[in-house]
C-alpha cells in the first residue's frame, strides 16, 4: 500500500477540502473530517487507476519535509492517505515514427480521451490479443 500526503484545507462556510501535492489538480472535499478522509481515499484510488489505464507513471510519494518546504502547502494540515495499487511499473521508451503517423496517433488519442502513451499501450495490447487468437 502506498501512502501519499493529503492536505486538508478549511475556509469559513466551506467543506473540508483535500488536495494532493504529488498529484497537482487532484482535489476532493467532505462535509466533516471523516467524510473528507473517505473522499480523499476514493479520489486518490480513482486517480491512480486512471493513470495506470492511460499508461502514465505514478509518482513516488514525497516526504512531509518536501511537501511542507513549499509555502503554498503550509496552510494545510497534512494527513496520510493510503491507496492499494496494482500498478505495473511504467517504463519510458523512445520510439521513432513517421511524423504523419505520429500526428494521426495524437489526433485520434485526443479525440478519444487517451494520452499518446495510453493509446499506444491499448493498441499494442489489442494487436497482440488479435495475433494470439
TrEMBL record:
- Residue ranges annotated as transmembrane are none
| Coiled coil (UniProt feature) | none
Query: InterPro entries recorded for this chain?
Result: Arc_rbn_hlx_hlx, HicB-like, Ribbon_hlx_hlx, TTHA1013/TTHA0281-like
Q: Which Gene3D superfamilies match?
A: 3.30.160.250, Met repressor-like
Domain HicB-like antitoxin of toxin-antitoxin system intervals: 4-124
Q: Can you say what this protein is called?
A: Type II toxin-antitoxin system HicB family antitoxin
Q: What is the lineage of its organism?
A: Bacteria, Pseudomonadati, Pseudomonadota, Alphaproteobacteria, Hyphomicrobiales
Amino acid at each position: 500500500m502506498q501512502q501519499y500526503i493529503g492536505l486538508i484545507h478549511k475556509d469559513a462556510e466551506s467543506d473540508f477540502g483535500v488536495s494532493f501535492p504529488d498529484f497537482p489538480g487532484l482535489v476532493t472535499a467532505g462535509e466533516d473530517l471523516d467524510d473528507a478522509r473517505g473522499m480523499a481515499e476514493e479520489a486518490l484510488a480513482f486517480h491512480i487507476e486512471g493513470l495506470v489505464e492511460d499508461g502514465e507513471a505514478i509518482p513516488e510519494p514525497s516526504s512531509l519535509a518536501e511537501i511542507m518546504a513549499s509555502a503554498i502547502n503550509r496552510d494545510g494540515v497534512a494527513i496520510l492517505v493510503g491507496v492499494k495499487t496494482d500498478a505495473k511499473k511504467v517504463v519510458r521508451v523512445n520510439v521513432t515514427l513517421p511524423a504523419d503517423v505520429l500526428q494521426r496517433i495524437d489526433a485520434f488519442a485526443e479525440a478519444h480521451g487517451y494520452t499518446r502513451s495510453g493509446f499506444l499501450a491499448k493498441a499494442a495490447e489489442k494487436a497482440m490479443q488479435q495475433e494470439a487468437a
